[in-house]
Amino acid sequence: MCNCETKAPEVIDLSKLDNILDGYRDKADMLIQVLLKIQKEYNWLPKEALYKVSQALNVPVNRVYHVATFYKLFSVIPKGKHNVSVCVGTACHVFGAPKILDRLEKSLGIKAGETTPDLKFSLETVNCLGCCALGPVVVVDGHYHGKLPTADAEKILADYD
Amino acid sequence: MQDIKIITRHLNTASSADIDVYMADGGYQALKKALSMTPDEVIAEVKRSKLVGRGGAAFPTGLKWELTRKEKANPKYIVCNASEGEPGTFKDRLILKNDPHMVLEGFIIAAYAVGTSQGFIHAREVYTEEIELFQKAIDQATERGFLGQNIMGSNFSLDIQFYKSAGAYICGEETALFESLEGHRGIPAARPPYPVQVGLMDKPTTVNNVETLCNVPAIINNGADWFAAIGHPDYPGTKLFCLSGNVKEPGVFEMPLGTNLKDLLEAGGGVDGKFKAVLPGGISSSLLTEMDVNLDFKTLAKAGTMLGSGAVIVINSDTSMVNVASNVAHFFDEEGCGKCSICREGTRRAAEILSRFSRGQGNRNELEWLLELHEVMKDTASCGLGQVALNVAASAIRNFKGEFLAQVRKEEGVWLR
Ligand SMILES: NC(=O)C1=CN([C@@H]2O[C@H](COP(=O)(O)OP(=O)(O)OC[C@H]3O[C@@H](n4cnc5c(N)ncnc54)[C@H](O)[C@@H]3O)[C@@H](O)[C@H]2O)C=CC1
Ligand SMILES: Cc1cc2nc3c(=O)[nH]c(=O)nc-3n(C[C@H](O)[C@H](O)[C@H](O)COP(=O)(O)O)c2cc1C
Ligand code: SF4
Ligand code: FES
């Protein structure tokens, strides 16, 4: 499925935004730090939020979008409730990461970079998470699954609903 | 072989993430000693120790501080580079987690030497736990008067701010890192001028890797002569080697710089399977097919590769070199910033060509073409990323040509000219 069809939730609760933005009024150099907080809160960067950031930090909207689309941790489209990241860095590659990715893609029925239609899982590949001795590594919602046997790849998903 | 631990000496004891544990082992004594010296004396000591940068490029640390200090412009800045993104590198994370105060003490001494009262640390957002521990260490050090105003009663003051990187390998490159700190996209700037003259917010700036800074307290405590006597005569001290790939017990090993690869492999329990090749400096380096080689900057440069940040990735005979080359090419295609056309287009075409080889659909003529592209990128790409992006591909083609030829498209004979 193509991501542009992933539906944004009808109503986005922007009330939490003011708390985040309060400490950063007119602090343009804090743009990335602010976006990180918003990404953490909403799991993506809704358009409305980006416009509010632009106003609060006094940064042109186009620059907000430049940054929001440059960095890997940001997403300007909604992501699933659970984020599954498969490390495909070279150390993990040597340990068999491609097979793990293959199995997860089949089991979720989506390709890396996509979100399941029920918005439950997003699957992505990442380049080295800095724990290569544990390879191959899959991270689900910040929880590390290291030295993962290929056969167990989809089992780790069972813990998340 | 000398068995000396500088940076990992607390690894198996109580975590010195707690300032009391760190101080019980002589922590912050080096800072006290440094503050009793003039900044120029501190710089002279570090220069005499011959410490070079551990971020990968081995630039003399004392000289970098001196060049920054000599600049007239003010304020000056210092940045600790904890962006660690090279696949196969996981040493800075280990230090940040186990010994944040060691990094901090080195950082404060460096700031004193350079002559700045504002420091920044730039770390990957995914290092969540490490960031928390480091922030706690900053708070503890501030409470004890090792940070903040008039440190330990001197007239030296320092404030350190923590910035998280939003996930871009290129932001480890120092000039792209400045862009990230300023809240922009991470696009590297042309150098020279080097950051020592024009750095963060266009002011003179020293950038140091986490591991580099960790050596500083030990040098101040034990003296430059002690440090200079460890390991390699030209590049003394130890190195954290990150051993990964097809080895039995991957991990971080602290050994003298210049340690033989065989000894490192032995420390890691030996090769898992039959040794085929090794990337001694992560995926920015070229493949090496021998095992009997000393891991220092000079020897590896002579062998046509580099030590870089010490990411030693071992590859066994079951692993396809074509797939490794393709994996690396995709990495650089994704991580390049897109500023220069040679890197943007070059990494994209290389990734496409190598993907085709992976699928058994290769065109043999394109192998020569990749080697040529490698030369052009080495000479013309603007930053270190583009210059090294095809090192793995080119060295794989040179050393394992048979594997590539076996993946040439067979049906119809279209590519088989
Ligand atoms: N630790 C990691 O995760 C990674 C490390 N690297 C390493 O980074 C290295 C490349 O880094 P670069 O910064 O491009 O290397 P470089 O050799 O251009 O510079 C190294 C350091 O010395 C300084 N410097 C160099 N020449 C100078 C001069 N004439 N005057 C004043 N200062 C000078 C630079 O400002 C920089 O701080 C590679 O060797 C690679 O191994 C690459 C990717 C990731
Ligand atoms: C693409 C690229 C990525 C880099 N990533 C890092 C990094 O993650 N950490 C680091 O310390 N240096 C990295 N460097 C090297 C820095 O530019 C710089 O040389 C280093 O931080 C200087 O510190 P040192 O002298 O203490 O080694 C990178 C260089 C390039 C070209
Ligand atoms: S070489 Fe590549 S990563 Fe470096 S500045 Fe050019 S496009 Fe960006
Ligand atoms: S390559 Fe996967 S964690 Fe480093």
TrEMBL record, chain A:
Q: Could you list this entry's UniProt keywords, alphabetically sorted.
A: 2Fe-2S, Iron, Iron-sulfur, Metal-binding
Q: Which cofactor does it need?
A: [2Fe-2S] cluster
Instruction: Name the positions where [2Fe-2S] cluster binds.
Output: C87, C92, C128, C132
Taxonomic superkingdom: Bacteria
Any one GO MF term held by the record is:
2 iron, 2 sulfur cluster binding
- Pfam families in alphabetical order: 2Fe-2S_thioredx
Alphabetical list of InterPro entries matching this protein: NADP_DH_HndA-like, NuoE-like, NuoE_dom, NuoE_N, Thioredoxin-like_sf
Q: How is the cofactor bound?
A: Binds 1 [2Fe-2S] cluster.
Which family does the UniProt entry place this protein in? Answer: Belongs to the complex I 24 kDa subunit family.
Q: Can you say what this protein is called? A: Hydrogenase subunit HymA, putative
Native source species: Dehalococcoides mccartyi (strain ATCC BAA-2266 / KCTC 15142 / 195)
TrEMBL record, chain B:
Q: Which intervals hold domain NADH-ubiquinone oxidoreductase 51kDa subunit iron-sulphur binding?
A: 322-367
Q: Which SUPFAM superfamilies match?
A: Nqo1 FMN-binding domain-like, Nqo1 middle domain-like, Nqo1C-terminal domain-like
**Enzyme superclass (EC):** oxidoreductase
The Swiss-Prot or TrEMBL record annotates one GO molecular function as: metal ion binding
Q: Which UniProt keywords apply?
A: 4Fe-4S, Iron, Iron-sulfur, Metal-binding, Oxidoreductase
Q: Which SMART domains match?
A: NADH_4Fe-4S
Q: Which Enzyme Commission numbers does its entry carry?
A: 1.12.1.3
Q: Give the signal sequence positions.
A: none
What family classification does the UniProt entry report for this protein?
Answer: Belongs to the complex I 51 kDa subunit family.
PANTHER family in UniProt: NADH-QUINONE OXIDOREDUCTASE SUBUNIT F
Recorded protein name is: NADP-reducing hydrogenase subunit HndC
The record's gene field reads: hndC_6
